TrEMBL record:
Compartments, record wording: Nucleus
Domain RSE1/DDB1/CPSF1 first beta-propeller: residue ranges: 12-364
Tree of life domain: Eukaryota
Name of this protein: DNA damage-binding protein 1
InterPro entries named in the record: Beta-prop_RSE1/DDB1/CPSF1_1st, Beta-prop_RSE1/DDB1/CPSF1_2nd, RSE1/DDB1/CFT1, RSE1/DDB1/CPSF1_C, WD40/YVTN_repeat-like_dom_sf
Record carries keyword Nucleus: yes
Organism placement in taxonomy: Eukaryota, Fungi, Dikarya, Ascomycota, Pezizomycotina
Pfam families in the cross-refs: Beta-prop_RSE1_1st (PF10433), Beta-prop_RSE1_2nd (PF23726), CPSF_A (PF03178)
Keywords: Nucleus
CC annotations in GO: nucleus
Organism this protein belongs to: Viridothelium virens
């Protein structure tokens, strides 16, 4: 059974609308990102997110209207599930509210509109039209004031009716503005830009005639689109958009590739004006009655201004380029010269339009469409057979995003981000010897810290900050800088305390004189220390515990306790949160004890590890949860972090929980958050931040994986910052308050179609496509580039031939001619070969590049093909290539030690065309995703050798299993033994299983669907991952999925013991949790394609949905778990563990 959860939510914007949604005095921007609606407020700096909500369906339409009885606008939303909603803003609950919903307006016999769904409202506000199917217009009237009509219904949408039109392939449509106040018998006029059976573009005007049904009856009204007027008989073939012109001019503009036309619908006359340069318009927005903004396919933004004569008739226009933006999908004019550009293949933007220029004032990152991706780091380190608990924050995902000039490499990582604001460098020291960091105030009266102490093995370095300047000082307020510092902090009354391995000392800030000191007897060493403003607790040689009292800066020993060599102290902590108590961790028996102050008497002890094998190495008491008891954090030597809830009154420990952060012990550092609440950073090989969210403790990976030590550094120049020590430098950084998805962008200005990653060389191989518009002609050129993994710097470039495009890229370790393996990239291409007069004959090549020591590309082998090379994979030491109709195995061989070549060994013919291939690790099985015929599994058998299973003297590819349903596959990956996950072009996911224990041969050859659901987004790439998980893990991560809409999902298999629990929980939640529109969850996630439609998802759990259990009211949570055999807290704990995965 399968589980899926989003790491990065969709970021592509195709639909947006400006409306007075929250209040009548303020306009808000609503954008649709696949299945998410986001509401933004406006400010001088751009737009800011006000509210976001997930809906059960992918948004295909947005429109606004205002009912007569409402003070604010309502939002009409259409989805791909043939469900349509009217939403308003609920001011009390601060969320969207469903006013009305329409479900299943579809007819099975209708064919979907090829140019997308469209929605229009007539200028008089009486009707809304929906164009969902070819040759059909759905008319929905707005309820007008009449007898027996409730006041609340006036102005809302009534019952729909449908009317047919002969224009099937409509490219664009709009209602025309009336030139004068409409009369009682005037009918709304709709302009239709359509393509006839001769592929000619035409313009036709039709009038909407609607007759309402009988009031009080169930009969809907009747609509007709009549009195057609044919205006354009010879339109530009590239005409694709209609722009209605408001009064007084009226009429409509037709945007073409080489010209723009204006038509007067009353006279039939028009104005034609050629463009200076051919282009393809893709979006438009109206500024006022005479000015319009146009965007083209090449990212250029135009201003079009109409010229009117003395009779207010259009006589021409001026059009000029304002500047360059992302390639727009939707334009929304905000106000005061600001424009929102929503983009699918580039970053969305907020622009400020100047007189002759534009300024980008805000950028909204977008990683759609993801054409390919590579997983460069999973953060998993093994040690003594143990691996860390997986978190997507440990994974760095590199995506090839965008298209053409908006093409880029994106580094995507989920976690708590660190933004470097200052880098101090290594300050002339070996930072590998850093043992800790401390921040202090070194001047009296300061409200923030000004000095950073860097403790090294044999000294302490002090750096004093004055504004943006920093200076290392050799002497600081009586501190001992010639020794390593165990603890440094400010005390009351302008005192500083420093603890080294030899002494505890306090000094006066104003005079810089040492005020008091204490040292262990007999040259013993201080091994650990913790302090508050009033007490210092030190461990001496690990066997003695000493409590010191601080009184006006003076130190006085108040208690001492010896534990002996068989009970050595491993860690300790003292905190104001637990007055008159301290916590001690011991090396023996994995024991943690609570001691009473000041006599150091043991109150209670707790064995942390059942076997007693793991040692507590760091302890901390912190107030992470607001208005709840403090939490005790214990870092174990094996990488586990154990937490307890501390009862302040009784000192009792309860609610034990454990999480595996790494394979090494973590060290804790508190980061104050205000209001007495703190976050805790655990630094280990996978640093994590522990903070509160929704009254729960959340563990999140920190995106900076090279953190050795960290401390708060809230200075005047860097407020709320932290100081970080790595092995290379000291940095001042700003830390996020919670986990988010962090995207780093490297612009490539070309479509990054394919990515290969050379692990040891730390470089990417990119297959790119560049498009240019030169002298009105579109030129396309393809390259293969070698790019540095860290700096994203282009190291080398290989240009492909004319008319040749890159199709596939693979990194491989191949024989270098001496029997050793070396780094290589294998590139598959496709091109149009017209040399033999066959203009439609597709050709291709396979190119093998050697990666030299200088990190350059050297072409060492080339293989010409009769078809395009769609996909590449390694099968052992052989190369598997998916061509146009076949899968071929090539051997990489050498004629001489310097002359390698590719030799065809065997092939397998697919049903239609292979789209993707996935090789089973450690096996010679290849799963082939076919364009139309789902997945087949083929076995590669080398020619017979000693011990080989093949009885043929030649290599063979034999089909051993097949999925016999029809699906338009887009990607496939191996996720388990005899198990594959497949994605199709209609947004479905299927888990296929081969039953090797089937009774008959046919049973063993048939791939069975064990799980299926509708994701709602087309998956372009599935990347398998291999991570270790604990025996009690709820799910086992298996793959990342990247989609056209810019989403990245984590795919996992559910542990058998949790399958029924998660499925039942999902089913229960579906009864209580609703999305805007009240569409059923089961229908939303049910498998659906042109051949088959299911009623609900099969053995598939939507992680984002089940995690909404944590947001439910307590009574709903209780109802959801009834009969499941577990309690609410158990479910919460399980879901929190799942949330940490993504």
């Amino acid at each position: 059974m399968a589980y899926i959860a989003p790491i990065h939510r969709p970021s592509s914007i195709k639909h947006a609308s400006l409306l007075s949604f929250v209040s009548p005095e303020e306009d808000h921007l609503v954008v649709a990102k696949a299945n998410r609606l986001e509401l933004y407020s406006q400010s001088e700096d751009g737009i800011s997110l006000l509210h976001a909500q997930t809906i059960f369906g992918k948004v295909t339409m947005l429109n606004k209207f205002r009912p007569q009885v409402s003070k604010t606008d309502h939002l009409f939303v259409g989805t791909d599930k043939q469900a349509y909603y009217i939403l308003s803003w609920d001011a009390e609950k601060k969320r969207m509210r469903t006013e009305k919903s329409y479900v299943d307006l579809a007819e099975k016999t209708f064919r979907d509109n090829q140019t997308g769904d469209r929605s229009h409202i007539t200028p008089d506000g009486k009707y809304m039209t929906l164009e969902l199917y070819e040759g059909v217009v759905t008319v929905v009237p707005f309820i007008q004031r009449a007898k027996k009509i409730p006041e609340a219904d006036i102005g809302t949408l009534g019952e729909h009716t449908q009317t047919r039109i002969p224009e099937l392939f409509v490219h664009s449509s709009c209602f025309l503005y009336p030139r004068r106040s409409p009369g009682k018998n005037d009918k709304p006029k709709m302009a239709l830009l359509y393509e006839d059976s001769q592929s000619q573009k035409r313009l036709k005007i039709r009038e909407l005639d609607y007759s309402a049904g009988v009031p009080g009856s169930d009969e809907p009204g009747v609509a007709e689109m009549e009195n057609d007027i044919d205006l354009g008989k010879e339109l530009d073939r590239g005409s694709n958009y209609l722009v209605p012109v408001p009064a007084p001019a009226g009429g409509v503009l037709v945007l073409g590739e080489t010209q723009i036309r204006y038509f007067n619908e009353e006279t039939g006359e028009g104005v034609i004006q050629a463009l200076n340069e051919a282009t393809i318009f893709v979006a438009w927005a109206r500024i006022d009655n005479q000015r319009f903004l146009l965007a083209d396919d090449y990212g250029r933004l135009y201003l079009l201004m109409l010229e009117l004569d003395g009779h207010q008739e259009v006589e021409g226009w001026h059009i000029h380029v304002l500047g360059e933006t992302s390639r727009a999908n939707v334009l929304v004019y905000l106000d005061a010269g600001r424009l929102f550009v929503g983009s699918h293949q580039g970053d969305s933007q907020v622009l400020k339009i100047e007189v002759e220029d534009i300024e980008v004032i805000q950028t909204l990152p977008n990683i759609a469409p993801i054409l390919d991706c590579a997983i460069t780091d999973l953060g998993t380190r093994t040690g003594e057979g143990q691996t860390s608990e997986f978190s997507s924050g440990q994974a760095r995902i590199i995506t090839g995003s965008g298209a053409f000039k908006d093409g880029s490499l994106r580094s995507v990582r989920s976690g708590v981000g660190l933004e470097d604001v200052a880098v101090l460098g290594n300050m002339g020291r070996d930072l590998a010897s850093v043992t800790n960091l401390f921040s202090i105030r070194s001047e009296p009266g300061l409200g923030s810290v000004d000095t950073l102490l860097v403790s090294l093995i044999s000294e302490t370095a002090a750096f004093k900050f004055q504004g943006d300047e920093v200076e290392e000082v050799d002497d600081l307020k009586g501190l001992q800088l010639s020794e390593s510092t165990l603890l440094a902090r400010n005390l009351k009354m302008s005192r500083i305390m420093q603890v080294t391995s030899t002494e505890v000392r306090t000094s006066d800030i104003e005079s810089g004189m040492v005020q008091s000191s204490w040292s262990p007897q007999n040259n013993q060493s201080i091994t650990d220390v913790s302090a508050t403003d009033d007490h210092v607790l030190v461990a001496v040689d690990g066997v003695q515990l000493v409590l010191l009292e601080i009184n006006s800066g003076s130190l006085r020993e108040t208690a001492k306790r010896n534990f002996g060599a068989d009970t050595q102290i491993a860690c300790l902590t003292i905190s104001d949160l637990l007055p008159d108590k301290c916590i001690i961790g011991f090396w023996q028996n994995s024991m943690v004890s609570t001691l009473k102050l000041p006599n150091l008497e043991t109150l209670q002890s707790e064995q942390i590890s059942e076997e007693g094998l793991s040692v507590p190495r760091s302890v901390l008491i912190s107030q992470v949860l607001e208005k709840q008891p403090p939490t005790l954090f214990i870092a174990m030597a094996d990488g586990n972090v154990v937490t307890f809830v501390v009862d302040v009154q009784t000192s009792g420990l309860s609610g034990k929980k454990s999480i595996l952060l790494g394979t090494q012990q973590a060290s804790f550092r508190e980061l104050p958050r205000g209001n007495g609440v703190s976050a805790v950073v655990a630094t280990c090989e996978h640093p994590s931040m522990i903070y509160s969210s929704e009254d729960r403790i959340v563990y999140s990976a920190v995106t900076a994986e090279d953190v050795s030590y960290l401390c708060p550094f809230d200075s005047s120049a860097f407020p709320n910052a932290v100081a970080i020590a790595t092995k290379e430098d000291i940095k001042i950084s700003l830390v996020d308050t919670e986990r988010t998805t962090h995207v780093q962008t490297q612009s490539v200005k070309e479509t990054v179609r394919r990515i290969g990653w050379a692990v040891d060389a730390k470089a990417f191989g990119l297959g790119t496509i560049k498009r240019e518009l030169r002298d009105g002609y579109e030129l396309v050129k393809s390259h293969f580039k070698l790019v540095d993994e860290v700096a994203f710097e282009v190291l080398d470039t290989y240009a492909l031939n004319e008319e040749e495009l890159v199709e596939s890229v693979m990194y491989a370790e191949l024989n270098d001619g001496t029997g050793e393996l070396a780094d290589h990239f294998v590139v598959g291409t496709a091109y149009l070969d017209e040399e033999e007069g066959q203009s439609d004959a597709i050709r291709g090549r396979i190119l093998v590049f050697e990666l030299t020591q200088e990190r350059k590309l050297r072409l060492i082998a080339e293989k010409s093909l009769k078809g395009a090379c769609r996909c590449l994979a390694m099968v052992g030491d052989k190369i598997a290539a998916a061509l146009v109709k076949t899968v071929v195995i090539f051997g990489f061989e050498y004629e001489t030690s310097s002359a390698p070549f590719l030799r065809k060994l065997c092939s397998y013919r697919t049903s239609t065309a292979p789209i993707d291939i996935a090789v089973t690790p450690g096996d010679n099985q290849i799963a082939v995703a076919d364009l139309m015929k789902s997945v087949s599994v083929v076995q590669y058998k080398p020619g017979f050798t000693t011990g080989a299973s093949n009885t043929s003297p030649t290599d063979t590819l034999e089909e051993v299993a097949r999925h016999y349903q029809t699906t338009w596959a887009t990607a496939v990956a191996h996720v388990g033994e005899n198990m594959w996950v497949e994605a199709d072009a209609e947004g479905n996911l299927l888990v296929l299983n081969r039953d090797m224990n089937g009774v008959t041969e046919d049973d063993r050859r048939r791939l069975q669907v064990t799980s299926e659901m509708n994701l709602g987004e087309m998956v372009n790439r599935i990347r398998r991952i291999d991570v270790g998980v604990g025996s009690d893990a709820v799910v086992v991560p298996k793959a990342f999925m990247a989609t056209v809409e810019g989403s990245i999902y984590l795919f996992a298999l559910i542990s058998p013991s949790k399958q029924n629990l998660l499925m039942q929980l999902q089913a229960r939640l579906a009864e209580f949790v609703q999305s805007p529109g009240h569409y059923e969850f089961n229908k939303y996630r049910a498998f659906k394609n042109l051949v088959r439609e299911a009623e609900e998802p099969q053995r598939f759990v939507d992680g984002e949905f089940v995690e909404r259990f944590l947001d439910c009211a307590p009574d709903v949570q209780t109802q959801c778990v009834e009969g499941l055999g577990v309690g609410v807290e158990d479910i919460k704990g399980m879901l929190e563990a799942l949330r940490r995965l993504h």
